[in-house]
Design a protein that fits this description.
By secondary structure, the chain is of the alpha/beta class. It is built from 15 helices and ten strands.
Length: about 325
């Protein structure tokens, strides 16, 4: 078609100027095609939340050029409360996102086709922090407990339903103010995030006031990298390269924690996140531990089939999903 335009213009008029114009038109079209081709190689990665050490491996893969070395043009774009990463994935604004395993399973159960391409966090960091001592799950009965408005509370809801606790769930965005003001009896927290914030805020929290999900049979893997089944099936090589470069980023972070912290702070500053090095160091140390399998101590970056079985059992018993999600369904090997 492009050559046809050129011939047509030449036949119409052999004038040299017109011929040159025709060549320029063809050149412009060809260059546009090339540029379009390059544009298609640009991929957007969006984590769950604002810049922080929870996403250190991705920042390293970007800053150290691991994505570029793999031939990928990757842009890291953080979400907002009004446009979370799952929405960006649905709209095609992002091609890769991080998500908790149980959150991904909930969306798959609802009909969305998601594929886990890298499971970096092998352990669970969720916990409940109470103003009063807790003596097991039954202590939560009838409590008013804060949870994340943006999601990630599926295990907590499942536990509530499973044990008929009758918890009154109060949503919050990202702050610890509800707990500090004692407007709630307890709050959901991540061991690497809100729990640290509470301690820095001067809260004297005793061990008896905390309940870790991993200690009550809910040690379900958390952060993994997801894409849509459609994107996976049409970009398998790029997906493989992204997963491998991301893994390389996390491994580098494990071996170079202080320089990793420098890079994390750089991303925090670039995204106008109010934080400090002490908080991010604490978060990084905790997150690097979450990379390890609790039984073997190894970093596999793969979803454990047994871990998926546990998640299926808990979510079905807690009425969060209707039917089990198969390993092949969520990994598309």
């Amino acid at each position: 078609m492009k050559a046809g335009i050129f011939v047509y213009l030449c036949k119409r008029n052999r004038n040299h100027d017109l011929l040159m114009k025709a060549k320029l038109i063809v050149l412009f079209i060809l260059l546009s095609t090339v540029f379009d081709s390059f544009a298609q190689t640009k991929f957007v990665f969006t984590p769950q939340w604002t810049a922080q050490a929870q996403f250190a491996g991705f920042y390293i893969a970007d800053a150290k050029g691991f994505y570029k070395e793999a031939g990928l043009n990757v842009s890291i774009e953080h979400p907002s409360a009004s446009n979370p990463n799952i929405n960006r994935l649905k709209m095609g604004q992002s091609q890769f996102i991080t998500f908790h395993l149980v959150s991904a399973m909930k969306f798959i159960d609802q009909g969305m086709e998601l594929v886990n391409i890298c499971q970096h966090f092998q352990q669970n960091a969720e916990m409940i922090v109470s103003h009063t001592p807790l003596k097991g799950v039954e202590s939560l009965k009838g409590m008013k407990i804060g949870h994340w408005k943006s999601g990630f509370s599926e295990l907590a809801f499942s536990m509530d339903n499973r044990y008929n606790l009758g918890i009154q769930w109060i949503p919050f965005v990202s702050h610890i103010n509800l707990y500090i003001s004692k407007a709630i009896d307890a709050t959901m927290a991540m061991s690497y995030n809100e729990f640290i914030q509470l301690k820095i805020a001067g809260q004297k929290i005793q061990k008896e006031q905390t309940l870790y999900f991993r200690d009550i049979g809910y040690n379900v893997a958390e952060d993994g990298v997801y894409t849509t089944a459609q994107f996976y099936n049409t970009h398998k090589e790029e997906v493989r390269k992204f997963a491998e470069a991301t893994r390389k980023g996390w491994e580098w972070a494990c071996n170079n924690p202080e320089e990793t912290l420098d890079i994390v702070m750089m991303y925090c500053q670039a995204n106008n996140v109010a934080t400090n090095r002490v908080v991010q160091r604490w978060m990084l140390e905790e997150c690097l531990n979450l990379l390890k399998d609790i039984n073997t101590g190894k970093r596999t970056y793969k979803l454990d089939p047994k871990g998926l079985d546990l998640a299926n059992k808990l979510l079905i018993e807690g009425s969060v999903i209707k039917k089990p999600i198969s390993y092949q369904q969520i990994t598309q090997p």
